[in-house]
Write a structure and sequence with these properties.
Layout: E1 9-14, H1 18-29, E2 35-41, E3 45-47, H2 52-57, H3 62-65, E4 66-68, H4 69-76, E5 79-82, E6 85-89, E7 94-97, E8 103-104, E9 107-110, E10 115-116, E11 126-127, H5 131-144, E12 150-154, H6 158-171, E13 176-180, H7 192-205, E14 208-210, E15 215-219, E16 222-225, E17 230-232, E18 235-238, E19 242-243, H8 246-250, E20 261-262, E21 275-277, E22 282-283, H9 292-306, E23 326-331, E24 334-339, E25 342-346, H10 347-363, E26 380-385, H11 388-391, E27 402-404, E28 414-415, E29 422-431, H12 437-455, E30 458-469, H13 478-491, E31 495-504, E32 508-517, E33 533-536, H14 542-550, H15 556-566, H16 571-579, E34 584-587, H17 592-604, E35 606-611, H18 621-626, H19 645-653, E36 662-666, H20 668-680, E37 686-693, E38 701-704
Parallel strand pairs: 1-2, 1-9, 2-5, 9-21, 11-18, 12-13, 12-18, 13-14, 20-22, 30-31, 35-38
Antiparallel strand pairs: 3-4, 6-7, 7-8, 10-19, 15-16, 16-17, 23-24, 24-25, 26-31, 27-28, 29-32, 30-32, 33-36, 33-37, 34-36, 35-37
Helix pairs in contact: 1-4, 1-9, 6-7, 12-13, 12-16, 14-15
C-alpha cells in the first residue's frame, strides 16, 4: 500500500512499563515526523526490576537502580506528565487525570505496572506491585514492626523469592520471615539445580518456607492458608501474581478475567483499534514478545499507525527466542540462572547479572544534547483577543468587584476598586520551560504573583498574556495552561478576569496582575538597616536545573524538586515576613539573588555579607554546575569545578530564578523566630547573611563562611 504521508497525531503513552521505555529509546534514535509523544506516569523514576532486590538490600542507590523518565523523554522529544489516570474516555478519546484537565489523544498505548492481586480488597496484606509504591512505604513498615515480628511474603515465584532474600539481608535477623509458596519446591518453572540453589539460599538467610499452600486474607494477625490452617503473622507482603489496573476494564475496553486488554499480534486492542497495550496490561497471543522485546514491536506499530498505514503482517520479525534465560538474585553475592533445562549458580553468575542489569539501566540514560541558546522571553509578532477555546477549560471565576470579566463578549475587564486601597500593578512573562502545560501554568502564575507578595500587596485580578508559535498545535493546550494558572491564582485570592493571545517564535505565558494594599503597609526594596538579617524563603538553582533539563542532564527527582518550589506561591512567606517586622523585601527572579540584593542595597545605601554555606540550594543544582550543566565531565567544554563552596555560591548568586523566593531584611532579634515560622509553613527558608553599613572602597556584597548572628 502506498504511504499516505505523515499526519499530525498525538500518541499518549499511559504508564512507564518496559515496553514504553524501549519505545522511547527507539524514538530517541529515530524521531517520528508528524507525531508527538506524551508519557503519562505517576512517578518520575521507575525502579528496574533486575536491581530491585539490590535496592531493597541497600547495595545501590535509587539513582543507580531507577530509570530517569525526565532525561529519557527529553531525548525522545516527548513530554512527561506526572499524573495518575483515573478514567479513559474512549468515545471522546481523552484521559481523565487526577487534579488536572482531561488529556486528548489520537493514539493511546497502555503499559501500566500491574497491581498485586490481593485475595480480598479488605485484607490487610501489603501489595508489592507497583514496586515504586512499595519502596516508598517500606521504611515506614520497617519502623513500625517491633523486633521479633513475623512477616509473611506471599508468592513462590522469582519476585517473592528475591523479595524474601533481600528483606532477610535488610533486616539482618531483626524480623522473622516466612515465604508462602503455592508449589512444593519454588520456583516451579526452574530445573532441579536452580531449585536446590534457591532452597540453600533461603536456609542460609533464615527464611522459613510454607510450601504447597495458597494464601488467603490476613485478618487479626492470622494469614489464612488453603489447607485450613492459619499462619500467625504481623504483616503480609503480597508478591503472588498481578492484575491489570481497574481503569482499563472500567473504560469499556475488551479485557480478560484479570482486567488485561485483549490485543492482537500487533498489540492493538481487539475492540478499539486506536488503543494499544503491552506488558502487564496486555493479554496477547502466546509466543509474542514481552518486556524490552515488546518495545520494538510497539514502536514499529505506532509509527505505522501514526502515518495512516495499515499494520499488515509484520509482527513475526520481532519474535524473541521462546525460552529466554531467567536470572535470580540470591543475595550475598550469589545468583542462579537457568534456561533450556540447564542451571548455573554462584558468584560469577551474580557478577554477570549485576553487570548486565546496570548496563541496561545506563542504556536508558541517553547522551546529553549539545548546548543551545535559551532566550528568557518570546517577543510577540501578531495578536488577537483570547478566543473562547483558550478559556473554555477555566472554571467560572468571579470577583465581587468585577463589573465585566470572563464569560462576556466585551474584550475588557471593568473593576471597582475598594475605597482607600492603593492599586499595585505588575507584569511578568515566562517562556514555556516545562513540557507539562498545566504545571507550567501554575509556575507562570506563581512567578507573576511574586512581585505583589514582595510589596506586601494582596493579589486582586490578573489578565493573561499568552503566545504560541505560528501553526503550532499548542493552541489546544492553552486551556490546560490557564486552568493550572487559574487554580493557583484562585488559591491566592486572585481572579483571572481576561486575557490576550499572540503568535510568537516560541510559547510563553504571562500575567498582568493588579493588587491592593494599604499605603502605610507597602514594603519597598529600600529600608534595609545595618544589623538586619537577610532571609531567603526558597532555595536557589531553578535556572541551572531548567537549563540542564533542556539538554537532558537533569534527573527527574531534581526536576520535581525544582517544579515543586516554583509552583509554590510566596503568599504565605509574605504574611510571615510582615508578622515579624520585615524592613525591606524583593522577589528573587530573573536578576538572580545578587542582582536583586544589589538593588536593595543601592536603594538602602548599605552593604551586606552573604554566607555561601548558608544559602539553600535545590537538589542537583551543584552537581549540574560542577559538570558545566551538561551532566558529562568533558574537559574541553566544561568550566573547572569550584575549589571550594564559595565558587559554587558565587555562581548561584547570578543564577536567574523562575518563581524564586523572597529576600527580606528582618530585625536580628526576630530572625530566628521568623525562620522557624517559615519552616512550619513548609518553606525551606534560611538566614543567608547580614546587612552592614556601607563604607567607601569596600564591595557592596562580600562572600564569607557563615558565622551566624
Amino acid at each position: 500500500m502506498q504511504q499516505a504521508g505523515p499526519i499530525a497525531t498525538d500518541i499518549v503513552l499511559l504508564g512507564a512499563g518496559t515496553a514504553h521505555l524501549g519505545l522511547l529509546r527507539r524514538f530517541a534514535r529515530r524521531p517520528q515526523s508528524g507525531a508527538r509523544l506524551t508519557l503519562v506516569a505517576p512517578e518520575p523514576e521507575v525502579p528496574f526490576a533486575g536491581l530491585l532486590a539490590a535496592l531493597i538490600r541497600g547495595d545501590c542507590t535509587m539513582s543507580d537502580a531507577c530509570i530517569d523518565l525526565a532525561r529519557l523523554t527529553v531525548a525522545a522529544g516527548a513530554r512527561l506528565i506526572l499524573a495518575e489516570a483515573t478514567a479513559i474516555d474512549l468515545a471522546g478519546r481523552s484521559l481523565e487525570l487526577a487534579g488536572r484537565p482531561p488529556m486528548p489523544f489520537g493514539l493511546l498505548s497502555v503499559d501500566l505496572a500491574g497491581e498485586s492481586a490481593l485475595p480480598d480488597a479488605r485484607a490487610d496484606c501489603i501489595p508489592v506491585s507497583p514496586p515504586g509504591r512499595f519502596l516508598a512505604q517500606l521504611p515506614t513498615l520497617e519502623a513500625a514492626l517491633p523486633d521479633g515480628a513475623r512477616v509473611a511474603i506471599v508468592g513462590g515465584g522469582s519476585a517473592g523469592i528475591e523479595l524474601a532474600l533481600a528483606l532477610a539481608r535488610r533486616f539482618r535477623g531483626r524480623l522473622r520471615l516466612v515465604l508462602v509458596s503455592e508449589t512444593p519446591e519454588p520456583p516451579a518453572a526452574a530445573p532441579p539445580g536452580a531449585r536446590r540453589a534457591v532452597r540453600a539460599a533461603l536456609v542460609d538467610a533464615g527464611v522459613e518456607l510454607a510450601s504447597a499452600v495458597l494464601a488467603g486474607a490476613l485478618t487479626d494477625g492470622r494469614l489464612a492458608l488453603s489447607d485450613g490452617s492459619f499462619l500467625p503473622t504481623d504483616a503480609a507482603l503480597w508478591a503472588g501474581g498481578t492484575r491489570a489496573p481497574g481503569v482499563l476494564a472500567d473504560s469499556g475496553l475488551a479485557c480478560d478475567a484479570a482486567g488485561r486488554v485483549l490485543v492482537d499480534a500487533r498489540q492493538r486492542s481487539v475492540s478499539h483499534p486506536w488503543v494499544f497495550a503491552a506488558g502487564d496490561c496486555a493479554a496477547q497471543p502466546l509466543g509474542y514478545p514481552s518486556g524490552a522485546w515488546a518495545g520494538s514491536l510497539l514502536a514499529a506499530t505506532l509509527r505505522r499507525a501514526a502515518r495512516g498505514r495499515k499494520l499488515g503482517r509484520f509482527a513475526h520479525r520481532w519474535r524473541p527466542p521462546l525460552d529466554m534465560p531467567t536470572m535470580l538474585d540470591l543475595g550475598g553475592g550469589r545468583a542462579t540462572a537457568w534456561g533450556n533445562g540447564l542451571a548455573v549458580s554462584g558468584e560469577t553468575v551474580w557478577r554477570g547479572k549485576d553487570w548486565l542489569d546496570r548496563r541496561r539501566v545506563r542504556a536508558y540514560a541517553p547522551p546529553v544534547a549539545p548546548p543551545r541558546h535559551l532566550p528568557l522571553h518570546a517577543a510577540a509578532r501578531t495578536g488577537a483577543e483570547a478566543p473562547a477555546v483558550m478559556l473554555a477549560a477555566l472554571p467560572r471565576m468571579a470577583s465581587p468587584d468585577a463589573l465585566i470579566g470572563l464569560g462576556v463578549p466585551d474584550h475588557t475587564a471593568v473593576l471597582t476598586p475598594p475605597v482607600g486601597q492603593a492599586l499595585v500593578q505588575s507584569v511578568a512573562c515566562l517562556r514555556a520551560c516545562l513540557d507539562d502545560p498545566f504545571l507550567f501554568g501554575q509556575v507562570a502564575a506563581a512567578h507573576a504573583l511574586s512581585e505583589q507578595h514582595a510589596m506586601g500587596a494582596r493579589p486582586w485580578t490578573a489578565l493573561a498574556i499568552a503566545a504560541v508559535p505560528t501553526g503550532s498545535r499548542m493552541w489546544a493546550e492553552l486551556g490546560d495552561m490557564l486552568a493550572g494558572a487559574a487554580e493557583l491564582l484562585g488559591a491566592d485570592g486572585c481572579t483571572l478576569v481576561g486575557g490576550h493571545r499572540a503568535e510568537a517564535s516560541e510559547a510563553s505565558l504571562g500575567f498582568a496582575v493588579s493588587g491592593l494594599a494599604e499605603q502605610s503597609r507597602l514594603r519597598r526594596k529600600a529600608g534595609l538597616r545595618a544589623g538586619d538579617a537577610l532571609l531567603l524563603t526558597k532555595p536557589l538553582g531553578t535556572g541551572i536545573v531548567l537549563a540542564g533539563h533542556a539538554r537532558g542532564a537533569t534527573r527527574a527527582a531534581w526536576l520535581c524538586a525544582a517544579t515543586g518550589s516554583m509552583r509554590t506561591s510566596n503568599g504565605a512567606a509574605s504574611r510571615i515576613l510582615r508578622a515579624h517586622g520585615a524592613n525591606a523585601c524583593a522577589a528573587v527572579n530573573g536578576s538572580g539573588l545578587a542582582g536583586h540584593l544589589g538593588e536593595m542595597l543601592g536603594a538602602s545605601r548599605a552593604a551586606a555579607v552573604l554566607w555561601w554555606d548558608a544559602i539553600p540550594v535545590l537538589p542537583g543544582a551543584l552537581e549540574l554546575f560542577a559538570s558545566g550543566g551538561s551532566g558529562r565531565r568533558r574537559w574541553w567544554d566544561r568550566p573547572m569545578p569550584p575549589r571550594d563552596g564559595a565558587g559554587a555560591g558565587a555562581a548561584l548568586l547570578a543564577d536567574p530564578q523562575t518563581s524564586g523566593g523572597l529576600l527580606a531584611g528582618v530585625p536580628p532579634a526576630r530572625a530566628d523566630a521568623c525562620v522557624a515560622a517559615l519552616w512550619a509553613a513548609g518553606l525551606q527558608a534560611a538566614i543567608v547573611g547580614v546587612v552592614e553599613a556601607a563604607a567607601p572602597g569596600t564591595p557592596m556584597i562580600r562572600m564569607e563562611q557563615g558565622q551566624g548572628l
